[in-house]
Write a structure and sequence with these properties.
2 copies of one chain form a homodimer. By secondary structure, the first copy, chain A, is mainly beta. Chain A has strands spanning 2-5, 12-15, 18-24, 29-35, 40-44, 49-56, 59-63, 66-70, 74-78, 84-88, 92-99. Chain A is globular. Chains A and B meet through strand 1, strand 6, strand 8, strand 9 and strand 11 of A and strand 1, strand 6, strand 8, strand 9 and strand 11 of B.
């Protein structure tokens, strides 16, 4: 059985200010982020379908030209190949899930 | 943009004692569970690859004949079609992600 504890997974700064812990499967990846206030991810897109969940903080998120301020409890669906960007307005804790797996984050 | 807040998603008791909030995409489903102490899911399997994450509580989990007691922070990978079962030893808060989407939970 593959069992890991989040507290033992090594954090990687995959983008400036985005400290991620990753758990990968065959067709799934789960990312746990600690994001520093002010850190932004520029517009990008990817084949992987994505869902984002805000655990804490305020995160400005733009999908296909629409911007929303996301807060604790929010869930966002990001379809495959749809352009999106984001910026942490405060320190944030976020989760993302992806399918297929994010081989580029391994 | 499809944005929902977890606090506004209606909970469904999908199995006795398993109160779930579901967020579905095309190839992904995310389940947020509140599980009552003592509630068990018998052995089952499904095509969907699954990852489980324990937020709080103690959850006895069996995968392919191996049993572990899972606690806060634990992440478990459940490959497609692998037999598994579980029992909440205390009240638990769990998350599951699946690919493909759990159309049977819609």
């Amino acid at each position: 059985m593959r069992l890991e504890n989040l507290h033992e997974i090594q954090e990687k700064e995959l983008f400036p200010g985005y400290h991620g812990k990753l758990f990968h499967g065959e067709q799934l990846s789960w990312a746990f982020w600690r994001v520093d206030q002010g850190s932004a991810v520029p517009e990008h897109h990817h084949l992987h379908e994505q869902m984002m969940h805000v655990i804490s903080g305020r995160f400005e998120f733009t999908l296909d030209g629409i911007t929303k301020i996301c807060e604790a409890g929010d869930l966002i669906h990001i379809p495959s190949n749809q352009v999106h960007s984001g910026k942490a307005l405060t320190d944030c804790v976020l989760m993302d899930v992806f399918s297929p797996a994010r081989d580029d984050y391994k």
